[in-house]
Design brief:
Strand content: 15-25%
CATH superfamily: Divalent-metal-dependent TIM barrel enzymes
Number of strands: 12
Number of helices: 9
Helix content: 40-55%
Mean pLDDT: 90
CATH class: Alpha Beta
Largest sheet: 8 strands, parallel, barrel
Low-confidence stretches: 2-8
Distance between the termini: 33 Å
CATH architecture: Alpha-Beta Barrel
Strand order of the largest sheet: 1-2-3-4-7-8-9-12
Oligomer: single chain
Radius of gyration: 19 Å
Length: 298
Amino acid sequence: MQSSADAPMALAGIGLKASHVADLWAGARSGAAHCIGFLEVHAENYMVDGGPMLKHLQQVRERWPLSIHGVGLSIGGQDPLDTAHLQRLRSLLQRFEPRWFSEHLAWSSHGGHWFNDLLPLPYNATSLQRVCNHIDQTQSALQRTLLLENPSTYVEFVDSSMDEGSFLAEVVRRTGCGLLLDVNNAYVSGVNHQRDPWELISALPPQAIGEIHLAGFAEDADAAGDRLLIDHHGAPVDAAVWALYARTIEWLGPVPTLIERDNDIPPLPVLQAEAQRAAALQQQRGLSARAAAAACAV
């Protein structure tokens, strides 16, 4: 089985947006696109039999490493996985051979109905077994390792018997999947539930983390007047998230990192600058992690 998390690399990428394609290719021709380490697309946008979108993605794949991010498997759902969706996903991955494939610890379908959202699930033995079964089925069908992303959450379940970090670590132990650590999601959930986000991050098996996401959030207040953060991918990465990312990289070493921006998309140079900042932190803080590892090996 092909692994997505075998060899972390110091790369920083951005999502592929139609509004940026012309500038990306202009930068590639001039040599100015070297600061983009990889590009990410959502799988469901490319599950078609042909046409210009697939042609353009093939051209992109020939120039940049590719990450494919799924949003529709409903891995945490109570229903069986949609085998037709899984087959289309397999065909897409076989065609483009991305360096990473990821999905969410969430559910988005139930009883034949689909929801345009990534919904939370309780962290208990029943959910754990269901998620592991779905990941086993997915990895067997795709013949590659899946990176599972930690969600941003706004509610918690009274029947949860595990914390999020323990739940994710046990999923990794049982299935051999990797992890996509969304540092922004960890921060958003931590603030919303009044917990230290580092508790989640430090509970994860570091060797399983194959990719990191960074994004912006919106801020509101809940009914009690407490801070409520919303993961909306429509703003620059917040200073608090950058600080948490720096701490994470110092712990992990360099890990391929994506800047997510899906709303209020700025000009390409703005996202390039954020990607360059992530790459610089990997270089600066990653040195500390490598030095510590070398000292332990002596």
